[in-house]
User: Fold Peptidoglycan recognition protein family domain-containing protein from Anopheles merus.
Amino acid sequence: MSQVVTYVVSYARTVAASSSSRLHSPVAWSRKSVQEGYYDLEAGETERTPLLYVRDNGRYRAKSLHRTNDPNRVHPVALGLMVALLVFLLIGVVIGVYLLLLTVQRPWPVSHPFFLVERPAWWQYPVALEAATLDRLAVTNVIVLHTDSEDCLDQERCVRYLQNTERSCWAARRDHIPYNFLIGGDGVTYEARGWKSQHGFVDLPGRNTTLVVGMIGNFTDRQPAEVQYAELKAFITESIRRLSLSPQYRLHGAVNATRPSQDSTIALYSQLERWLHWKGFVARDQP
Assistant:
């Protein structure tokens, strides 16, 4: 009898211990149910992965919760396509700019570099330049004439000529040197009134549409030095590059209205008449 009581007590303890274990882990996977994809509420093994419960024909089917994808993450393929698109766009822009530059008309290939001495470098006096502003968008003409003076073959003599001419013009009529630019025998361009101001010749047409360039020297019977012609080409090209002269500009010489046939034979124009943009002579009302 005592053995029976002992057995019953031992069995009761075993059942109680088993019930306590299930209370701590009431839901677990059994190896068999894992293979079948169902929950086993009585299995002794625990499951650490979060699960979903799906009712299916009276039984609970287990579904694992998968981590959702990061919405800010860019797929490698999409990233590659974006980079390729940007590269093609950049190449297209470069090609477009190159083709645009090719459309800009150049009067000729320039091998002679452009040298410029600006006005403040040769005129350092308190009287500032005061002249009407030139409409840069309308500049379509270049008039070339000689100064009918002594040559200047170095910068010192050329600067002296500009200074003396400025003083003479100011003393005679309270005005500045009338040229926009002058080109010396040293192959240098000297800024007089520049690209932004109208020329000061009252007897030449188109004051608001014209740049007047003086070749320093007397070139009635002889041509200027080749370096002066080369610098004139470089000046015209630079003016176009600065958008201060239309690529479809017109090149003119100046003759006296009272003796046009005589002035047209001036040696200065014998070479200019063969240039592409040459359009003939304009008449001056005064000698």
Observations:
- The chain has eight helices and nine strands.
- The chain has a mean pLDDT of 79.
